[in-house]
UniProtKB/TrEMBL annotation, chain A:
It comes from Streptomyces scopuliridis RB72. The chain crosses the membrane at residues 6-27, 52-74, 80-100, 121-139, 159-179, 191-209, 247-269, 281-306, 340-366, 387-407, 413-434, 446-467. GO terms for biological process: plasma membrane acetate transport. Pfam families: SSF. It is a multi-pass membrane protein. This is Acetate permease. Keywords: Cell membrane, Membrane, Symport, Transmembrane, Transmembrane helix, Transport. One of its GO terms (cellular component) is plasma membrane.
TrEMBL record, chain B:
The chain crosses the membrane at residues 74-96, 108-130. This is Membrane protein. InterPro entries: DUF485 (IPR007436). It comes from Streptomyces scopuliridis RB72. Keywords: Membrane, Transmembrane, Transmembrane helix. Residues 25-47 are annotated as: Disordered. The keyword Transferase does not apply. The keyword Membrane applies.
Amino acid sequence: MSGDHQPLALLLFSAFVAVTLGITTWVSRRRQGSAEEFYAGGRLFSPMENGFAIAGDYMSAASFLGISGLIALFGYDGMLYSVGFLVAWLVVLFLVAELVRNVGRFTLADVVAARMRERPVRIAAGTSSVTVSVLYLVAQMVGAGSLVALLLGGTSGAARTWTVIGVGALMVIHVSLGGMRATTWIQIVKAVLLMAGAIALTVLVLVRFHGNVNELLNTAAEQSGHGREFLAPGLRYGGDWTARIDFISLGLALVLGTAGLPHILSRFYTVPTALAARRSVIWSIGLIGGFYLMTIVLGFGAAALVGTDAVRASNAAGNTAVPLLALDLGGGAGSTGGTVLFAVVAAIAFATILAVVAGITLASSASVAHDLYASLKRAHTERRGEVAVARLAAAGIGAVAIALSLLARNLNVAFLVGLAFAVAASANLPVLLYSLFWRNFTTRGAVWSVYGGLIPAVLLVVVSPVVSGSPESILPGVDFAYFPLQNPGVVSIPLGFLAGWFGTVTSTEPPDEARHAETEVRSLTGAGAV
Amino acid sequence: MEKQEGRAAAAVRLDVPWYEALSPDWGEWGGTDSSAAPAAQGPDSRGATETADIYAEVRRSAAFQEVRGRYRRFVIPASLAFLGWYVAYVVAATAAPELMARPVAGAVNVAMVAGLGQFLSTFLLTWAYARHARLHRDRAALELRWAVFDRRTRGAEGDAR
């Protein structure tokens, strides 16, 4: 895969960058610099707009390229990701979205701080939010680097490095100048592009098989070289019990992590009411569900039309399955149709990474400025000052993420995303659910539940085979892998819940009844919500 | 499916007259044109206590208990059900691959049906939740919201006098 598609892909990608820069300039031309404007885009987006933006925030390149690629390589086992990523939205819809919209203002920590002593819980929740965001950010930027190497043929280290730096710098500009309003529009544009691209490819695959799904599956099984086994679980996660428990761990992290992702939570504050937040989630479930159904067709389509071996030969992790499929559907290498489709898919994948990076950068800058800085500073400064800090924080986080991404550039992208979900599920979800639903929850319980999930999750990763002890780990030379699983979720998520419970029952100060009454009434009725 | 979703949303929008209604105390924290906010939230500790009393009272009220009960009676069983179904699916895929590989029709096997069943159950539960909230919760919650707002405004006026 080389040659003529590069200029077109670069052209399309530059067009997207130009559009996003245009949006940012247009949005920031009348910016007021208020916190409401910067973190929440004025809170006046419609549910449909926000639903598209949520979908744009959530469907990363890891989903578009990664899941389809896993299906093309391992068949059914790749589908398990799609299911986990979608079912997670029921947790968000039922337990989190509306209540968070009513209780909080800009961040996760707002929800907890509404009924606890503010300083300790803000520092705790702010720290865990920034940790999750940086992990997720690194995953996306590493993905951007590999994508360039794969799609544009620039396999040299320099091309990767400059892509990572370029993507990071571009997003810092978008976020610090345009705030939530620009970020939201970038995500909406990206979601429309991604859906359109996925629909077009899916239709082409189905047309190729005359709408006969059975034939598609049979051909995929045949071309994969695994036969029937390709359509059943076990090709990737079969193996020994460690691998199986690792998969259950990942499954738990996926389904419980989404509701704890700071950049998803902050999206609910961009609509005026809890009812609008609910409608946004319904829109996004429709979009995300439709999208993941299409990734299944694309994955099996790539296996059937391109062939598993050809996919693996192009990229061992399967990340190029969809671009290769596009090339084939357009008429094969060298044809105009193939070149155009390939370039379009490449450009959409870039757009996807840019938009996701923007959302996370914004959410983490809000955590730094609104939670950490506001709690740690001594004197009370104006809110305008806080926004200035947030703009600076966006630049700082961008720099940190660029540096980490350059260090971690050989790590598997899907793994990094799974890790971010595991930390979110362990550190953020327990404290969020306890705050919203448990009457006797106390400040100590809140702080313990955050650190009780965050610290084990991070430590277990450090002593896992990911960091040391195997040829694929970050430090292959040494071996301190005492924990056998790659994903810590199955241990650290229960620990987060347990620590919150234990901190609460051993707490010496009684729970604040009056403020709990206020949060509870506010969460369910919206009375007094911002 | 998107189109259907859109049409459903449009239809619902007509059903719910307060759809566009903003929070009655909109802008209170933002500090724009709200006369009630300073009195209710100011440094005057009497105002703060009264606000707390209002919330405590509303929480004790039968109307609020009903809204909360309806919410919890739906989301708790529904959450347990879908989490149980999801965990069963993941465990079955890892622990019983032979069962999952059993063919159903043509190339479609049990695993395929179960996976698509997860998609289907997610869409159905989303629809059921939205319907339940719209029919059994939204109106009562909005009334409570206005009740709180009324009392806080009245309290603030009393302070001013």
